[in-house]
Prior knowledge:
Elements: E1 3-10, H1 18-33, E2 39-41, H2 53-56, H3 67-79, E3 82-90, E4 96-103, E5 109-114, E6 133-135, E7 138-142, H4 152-159, E8 164-168, H5 181-189, E9 192-196, E10 212-216, E11 219-224, E12 230-237
Parallel strand pairs: 1-2, 2-3, 7-8, 8-9
Antiparallel strand pairs: 1-12, 3-4, 4-5, 6-7, 9-10, 10-11
Amino acid sequence: xxxxxxALLHLLxxxxxxxxxxxxxxxxxxxxxxxxxxxxxxxxxxxxxxxxSQKIGTKWIKQQPDEWMTNFLDLIRSLNTVVFLGxxxxxxxxxxxxxxxxxxxxxxxxxxxxxxxxxxDDWSTSGAFIEPINMENVKIGVLICADAYTKNIADRFxxxxxxxxxxxxxxxxxxxxxxxxxxxRSIDTGLCLFxxxxxxxxxxxxxxxxxxxxxxxxxxxxxxxxxxxxxxxFDWDLEKMD
Length: 242
């Protein structure tokens, strides 16, 4: 494969409204698949919203795949596409993680990344495993939101052979908003960076002006913000990385 068609799901999830968010993801994935995309990327915690724990707690979080995820895997297989899905999970030993699951065209979870910089997520445990995910012979480093804040994690992905960085995020502007971190990670590593952000608002964070971005050499090639959910589709040349 020398070219990819990628869709970023710039969604408006609602904190704690799990079933509504799951339906939104399913609808968006189906519409993106209608555009013959190869890869679909969701924002961070697309299933739950960012500040869900203040509304519904954490007892609902299960080991994955749970019942919904199992049905979602069947859907992905039927659509013949790849999905990177932001979803909380419980480990076998009971810890909770802010995770991104990599689902291949056969509807199989072939990898996942647990958020490392989880100190701001009071419900979750920090992940310890940093390894690119090999998706269709492309090595992907997954930077979940604040994992892009410093160069350490991106540099480790690069050292382990990552060819593209993706950043499923829930990072809106403001006092602690993004301030060139994604661009700098692209410069540091020399890798392109696909940022899938979101819109809407949670308990104390607003995302109405949050941007999804495609970055190369520190420069945004494409960017988008909106007041409603959107599917952002672009074609990517894997040989030229452009």
